[in-house]
Amino acid sequence: METIDLIIIIVYLLAIVIVGLVMQKKASRDIDSYFLGNRKLPWWVLGASGMASNTDIAGTMINTAFIYALGTKGFFIEIRGGVTLIMAFLMVFMGKWNRRSKVMTQAEWMHFRFGTGKEGDTARVIAAFASIIMTIAMVTYFVIGAGKFVGSFLEVEPIYASLIMVILAMIYTVASGLYGVVWTDVFQGVFIFGVIIYISGMAMSMVTLPEEFMVSVPMLDGSFTAIKTSLSEWSRITPPNEMNMPVGSTFEIYNLFGIAIMFYLFKVTLEGSSGAGGYMLQRYFAAQSDREAGLLSLFWTSLLAFRWPLIASFAMLGIHHGLNPEFNVIADPELVLPTVIKHYIPTGVKGFLMAGLMAAAMSTFDSTVNAGAAYWVKDLYQTYLRPNATEKDLMFQSRIASLVIVALALVFSLTINNINEIWGWITMGIGAGMFIPQVIRWYWWRFNGYGYAVGTAFGMIAAVMTKAFGGPLPEYTSFLIASGSSLAGCIIGTFYTKATDDKVLFNFYKITRPFGIWDRVRNQLPNDTLSKINKENRRDIIATFFAVPWQVVLFLTGMMIVLKQWSNVFNLFVLLILLSFGLYWFWFRHLSKEVKIES
Prior knowledge:
- By secondary structure, the chain is mainly α.
- The chain has a single domain (about 5-35, about 40-590), classed as Up-down Bundle (Sodium/glucose cotransporter), CATH 1.20.1730.
- The protein contains 25 helices and two strands.
- It has a two-stranded antiparallel ribbon with strand order 1-2.
- A hairpin with a 5-residue loop joins strand 1 and strand 2 (about 225-230).
- Helix 1 (about 5-20) packs across helix 10 (about 160-205), helix 10 (about 160-205) crosses helix 18 (about 390-415) and helix 12 (about 255-275) packs across helix 19.
- The radius of gyration is 23 Å and the shape is globular.
């Protein structure tokens, strides 16, 4: 890093802090302003903010590592979480279902679904604690990935690099809440797009990959092994049934590739049908209408598509580096990103690039912390500890909660060895322990608050115990242990307690209007209203079958353009047009039409 690069980074960091602080006055009126922006933020701002929040350094590093080592097969592996495929479900129906509740947090939603009695309280408290644990895990993931990346450039220990970004992001996050988060995200998004355009252009003009080349994969013992691959195999757009990774490599678990991908699709379908959570869900609670929930999703997903050409470009440049006789093949796939920046980005531009990637990291961090603090303030402190707390007291608690979450994450980051370790646990362990009850709550009237609470508790405990004492288990094993424990808890909690009150169920159904097993409640509605609900539900189900492949094809198309695989681009583009037409017909043209149900 030259002096001019450091100056650019410093100026940028100061600029985003100033942007965030400017929003402090708007955000400090009350906690609704602080956590949801008074539900008056434009849909395009929420969508752009969501894109910036999904584009983090740690995720970019691990996705680049997968693409570098496996080609587009790595993209299919990241269906487990990195492709953010749950956006397809949020776009079609989950976004509007969540928005209709008009609550502030996912835990507060439990009162809407299960009532305000003991049943609803139990579900709400468990949901709040589980969400806080997930928030700490996500911030830990940020600290490790961002620290490892930025520390290598500033030539400081990763933990100190993380502290620099954490302290600066905390200044505007704590001061200005969601207002500061989304507007700094929009500001950061401009930098991110500048990075994408520059790196993609560089990769396309500089790199022409040969028909065969070497890459490297990590081994379980901490070493790395170089392997040969072909361009056609590396850039294929259909996942193979099997791979042939070396015995003892960390990628050996993906050799039965077809089964692994089907498993990830199954997992994502359940996760998408559960309604998501955290900072992603916060954008939908802040949306002004069903229509705007759909528009922000479409904008968010479309912007996310540009991330994958960036990742493919970094992977291409990493392979290009290994082809240079002066260098060796990059051994550690997780170091492809910093290696490329060190060797191929000129002075001055490197400063802007680093600023853009730090922007991506900080936007993920600020969104996660702001959403996580809401669970303490709204769902625990105000609801159960101090119901008569003043707005000043609640604002103080919001800021203290943000600081405590970050402090705990910094401590836990000292116990994690690499990025993929924490990401795999988040997506396939702790996430699996939470989302079975998250799914069932939407689609089955008999599922009650006790079933939710016991299922979540069983799943979370199983995930934590597996991580602490299970050793190096395959991801699908961790998933099955956590989700199986959660399902058992759901069944036990539901059938050993009475059903939710009919009035609560009817109020939930008439507002949300989900599909699923709701005949007990639906039969109370007039036939003409029920007919309208059925039409809406049928359209949404059909549209989802277009939305999921549409998102996958959209992301792959951008990658193939950068890779200059023009036959693949043509095939994907034709498919994208067909899927877009189906999505328009069954979803987009109906966005402004809502079913009205009188009380």
